[in-house]
Amino acid sequence: MGEVDPAFIQDTQHRPKLAVIEAEGIPLIDLSSANASNHVSQIADASKNWGFFQVINHGVPSESRRKIEGAARKFFALPLEEKRKVSRDEVNPLGYFDSELTKNVRDWKEVFDFVVSTPTVIPVSPDPDDKELKELTNQWPQYPPELREVCEEYAREMEKLAFKLLGLISLSLGLPENRFNLFFEESTNFIRLKHYPPCPIPHLALGVGRHKDGGALTILAQDDVGGLEVKRKTDGEWIRVKPTPDAYIINVGDIIQAWSNDTYESVEHRVTVNSERERFSIPFSFNPGQHVWVKPLEELTKGEKQNYRAYNWGKFFSARRRSNFKKLDVENLQISHFKVSE
Ligand code: OGA
Ligand code: NI
């Protein structure tokens, strides 16, 4: 391990355990219409007790998924100098990147990011006084030539599923099905193709360090290698999520936690790596427009304390992005920083 960059080494308390606990009882929700009468209560239980769940019979054609997974493999197999032709940088956050940090430690991964809608508009900086906005533009590599088309097709499928889940979450909170839809006008959804190469120090490093997803929902496609771990709410143990073929993993994000005034909680998770097998995954982040101010919904807090002050999604997003790029001296931005004290 002589030549491994110390930037990858996790603090002792965050290193993966050698004895893996395989998940039991992680909710698996069958979204087929035959089961429709159970969807709302299953989503309510899963979101309350776990903060994440898996869905099957979700309506996303397996062909779309197979195509994007195939194209992602081809892209990451290119020589580094080829991938770096579409490198992201501080001006354009989209494209290829291999030096991302989570909580100031480098992740053992490489990614390719693209936005789902064009244009996607976000603030230039996290500074609240800086009102300047910018339009994000996707950078598509020359190889593999089909990448753009398969990504765009997959993105449309992800949006469909995301709105279906959003409607069910809304119903499960006792709200009208479309209660959240307005927030997703000019949404800032994005997709990451992720590659976790085999790692010579899997006991010291992580593919992605512990974190909570800052958006509304994440829809994750993971391959059959495994490595995703979630922090169980009951005892704080790290639990391995066993891959289910063709299923998607759904994470309740921080925004749903704030909207629901902590009825639903976004859950901490991380990705472990191994020394033998590379792993691929594709998260879709379902996010509101940058102009949206996130705060607990009035209907859910009548007569009760609102647990969060309103925060602007665009600024939050911008602050998080910066911390993934640069090592900071402070903890990165969390919704707990907007928590109203007792
Ligand atoms: C993420 C994430 C998990 C994975 O991108 O936020 O947690 O399996 N990904 O790649
Ligand atoms: Ni995540």
TrEMBL record:
Pfam families: 2OG-FeII_Oxy, DIOX_N
Ranges of residues in domain Fe2OG dioxygenase: 187-288
InterPro entries: DIOX_N, IPNS-like_FE2OG_OXY, IPNS-like_sf, Oxoglu/Fe-dep_dioxygenase_dom
Alphabetized PROSITE patterns for the sequence: FE2OG_OXY (PS51471)
The keyword Metal-binding is assigned to this record: yes
Keyword entries, A-Z: Iron, Metal-binding, Oxidoreductase
MF GO annotations: dioxygenase activity; metal ion binding
Source species, domain of life: Eukaryota
Cited PANTHER family: OXIDOREDUCTASE, 2OG-FE II OXYGENASE FAMILY PROTEIN, PROTEIN DMR6-LIKE OXYGENASE 2-LIKE
Similarity field: Belongs to the iron/ascorbate-dependent oxidoreductase family.
Name by which UniProt lists this protein: Fe2OG dioxygenase domain-containing protein
Lineage: Eukaryota, Viridiplantae, Streptophyta, Embryophyta, Tracheophyta
